[in-house]
Amino acid sequence: MTELKSGFPKNFLWGGATAANQVEGAYDLDGKGLSTADMVKFVPKSERGNDFSLDVTKKEIDAILAGEVDARFPKRDGIDFYHHYKEDIALFAEMGFKTFRLSLNWARIFPNGDDTTPNEKGLAFYDSVFDELLKYGIEPLVTLSHYETPLNLTLKYNGWADRRVIGFFTHYAETVFKRYQNKVKYWLTFNEINVISLSPYTGGGVLVENAENPLQLSYQAAHHQFLASALATKLCHEIIPNSQVGCMLARMATYPATNNPDDVLKAQHENQMNLFFTDVHARGTYPTFMNRFFAENNIVIKKETGDDEILKEHTVDFISFSYYMSLSATVKPEGDRTAGNFMGGVKNEYLETSDWGWQIDPKGLRFTLNDLYTRYNLPLFIVENGLGAYDTVEDDGSIHDDYRIDYLRKHIEQMKEAIKDGVDLMGYTSWGPIDLISASTSEMSKRYGFIYVDQDDEGNGTLKRSKKDSFNWYKKVIASNGEDLA
């Protein structure tokens, strides 16, 4: 009789995840170049309409560079991890982290993106961060590109729309693989790679405002990222023989809003368009269902000889993904809509929502894990999951975030169920173990962390770090390897 897996594996990688552009700050120190994230201004919630876009135009960039825009750019400052990393990592170690997911800021290492020689001060900073993590026995999980393209590549080449950027990226990847080969063995290539089809500027530094066919530009840029990811995977395996390289998807499973076959087909289409990106990474080929989408949207992917072979020969070792919510789809135009990170859907009457309108669906995580594992039969890694919420600091300095504990508890319970179902799950890094700048809204008040950072949406505060109730709860979860969730 086959023995049923009853809990998390002994070597399960518990931890937390951040992105350079949301925590580091120091945007103009030690030779760092400007990145696309440095051009994203803060827009108060009261001024964000239904047409709020995460994309930035060339005209806006020119005005910002000319000093003609009176605005805050929160991702330039982050939470000053650049100067607080030792303190922050000590807190992660106190919680018992087995791994810490962070990203390298490409423009900190190659300020213009197309430089021949890297910036030594940038490389040295990450050396120090990795040394600090390894001092506590914390494995670094490193993302090469997390919503940051060197701004020069956008202005000079229109980012990933230009095939030449593949070469600049592989030069960057080879540089860091060689530099950190004895410190980092877990790597991710592109964060939430599907976002390039939803926000080309965010996902690939691509400006689409003057494009005849924005979708053509976005999917051509995605093709270049697929190639760059495959080539980086090849390089990593050659330079770091024991390394593991994963792709990363923003996964929001879509349910049909009703059992109307039209809704079922629409939901299937939405899921296919999402999973297209992991299909290429894991299977090494473009799925046939994309042929019709490309034809109906006048998209022709320009390939060169050998592209298909590169994708086929250098697939990923594991699949990582973010999971915050599920979506619902219907062919009916009416109905309440719900918010989401880069995408939304029809309101699901069976689910509660967060302060930002994101639908909370723990069982959807179990569904997602089973769905992905059945589809690819590769190890899975949840590298983002968490609750953005308003936190209140009490008079005595305590922060009681039972709502966050409840959210995480219910998702971890479903992870355990998926493992019982037979899913091979490598690890879990909650999003934002420390409060950081929001990717989608550049807010500070949208807090995810176990650690509170004293800073508001306007950048005011002492940056003092303090523990929330969830800090000790997560510490207990890790110490018990997911058994004690009370």
TrEMBL record:
The record's section on NCBIfam families has: PRK09593.1, PRK09852.1
One Pfam family name is: Glyco_hydro_1
What protein am I looking at? Glycosyl hydrolase family protein
One GO term under biological process is: carbohydrate catabolic process
UniProt keyword terms in alphabetical order: Glycosidase, Hydrolase
Q: Which residues form the active site?
A: 384 (nucleophile)
Q: Which family does it belong to?
A: Belongs to the glycosyl hydrolase 1 family.
The upper taxonomy is: Bacteria, Bacillati, Bacillota, Bacilli, Bacillales
Matching PROSITE patterns, A to Z?
Answer: GLYCOSYL_HYDROL_F1_1, GLYCOSYL_HYDROL_F1_2
Q: Which domain of life is it from?
A: Bacteria
Q: Which InterPro entries match?
A: GH, GH_1_N_CS, Glyco_hydro_1, Glyco_hydro_1_AS
Q: Does the keyword Hydrolase apply?
A: yes
- Species annotation: Listeria fleischmannii 1991
A Gene Ontology molecular function term for this protein is: beta-glucosidase activity
Q: Which residues form a coiled coil?
A: none
Cellular component GO terms held in the UniProt record? cytosol
